[in-house]
Amino acid sequence: MGLTGITSDVVSSVFASRECGLLLGDAREVLRTLADASVDCTVTSPPYYSGRRHVGDTVHEIGSERTVEEYVEALVSVGGEVYRVTRPTGSYWLNLDDKCERKEWLGIPWRVAFAMREIGWKIRSEVIWHKPTHLPRAAKDKLTPAHEQLFHFVKSKDAYYDMDAIRNPSSPPVLGKNGVLKTPRGRVPTDVWIIPVEDSGFPENQYAVFPEALVELPIRATCPRGGTVLDPFVGSGTTAVVALRLGRKAIGIDASANFLEFTKKRILEVSGQPATPRQASLNQAVKVSHGRMR
């Protein structure tokens, strides 16, 4: 069965197949064209606050807001539409980074998380993504940041969750209420994930790529095989590529046509179809001023 979430009203499709659809436009507008309760899992990383990607003078992309309050409001508008298109048993994984202004952290991740609760999302987990290969920053009065946050939101307490798909294979005995317990199926992962920032693999690209490992665990755990994964800020396509590799369908949205063309080439490579060299396609993609390509 092919994708069911994309309606006939969508006229900005860059790529469409039975397993994947790539849609061009502002996430807030494009999401309104998707069908209710058509997505199993969303995994995304929106542009940083005050770090707009250069996608053209006519595009007011999220991240270019004048205040942090406006930025949070913009992400909530996206989160509301994601809520609508998500099945009752679905999940929303949102990767966010904070910003320091005038030597004070703004607390953006938790501001957004609390705002998501106000529109119906329930916070199931807060994951700390520890980046062991973080970018060194010299400061005389502040520690070097080496993590980002990944929130797992659900619509209901009975949300789909396949813990066996993500258990750690090594399982030493653990101490429970009644003594030592064995975990023959493997240990449940913690909420601290040590995942290096990936090298982009493209010599002329100075930015890091959204790590596939950061996307893989959420998809395995909260999207059934054959289900649909959404990324409303798909960027260079990592979420869509991982979803397809894991036997799921994918919907990607982005305001940059160049990014979507690059994502299309990556998807064709995953499906075994010929595509132009990845280096050549990247040279025509706009670079990201907020620090990474997703």
Q: What name goes with the CATH superfamily?
A: Vaccinia Virus protein VP39
Instruction: State the CATH topology.
Output: Rossmann fold
Given the C-alpha coordinates, what overall shape results? Answer: globular
Could you say what the CATH architecture is? 3-Layer(aba) Sandwich
Number of strands: 15
Query: From N to C, what is the helix and strand string?
Result: EEHEHEEEHEEEEEEHEHEHHE
Mean pLDDT: 84
Number of domains: 1
> What composes the largest sheet?
9 strands, mixed
Gyration radius (Cα, Å) is 19 Å
Low-confidence stretches: 202-208, 275-292
Approximately how much beta-strand content do the residues carry? 15-25%
Strand order of the largest sheet: 1-2-14-13-3-4-8-7-11
Task: Provide the structure class.
Answer: alpha/beta
The CATH class turns out to be: Alpha Beta
What level of helicity do the residues show?
10-25%
Number of discrete helical segments? 7
Structure, described:
- This protein is α/β, with parallel strands linked by helices.
- The chain has a single domain, classed as Rossmann fold (3-Layer(aba) Sandwich), CATH 3.40.50.150.
- Helices cover 24% and strands 24% of the residues.
- The protein contains 7 helices and 15 strands.
- The strands form 4 sheets. It has a 9-stranded mixed β-sheet, sandwiched between helices. Strands 5-6 form a two-stranded antiparallel ribbon. Strands 9-10 form a two-stranded antiparallel sheet.
- β9 and β10 form a beta hairpin.
- α2 packs across α3 and α4 crosses α5.
- It starts with 12 loop residues before the first strand and ends with a strand.
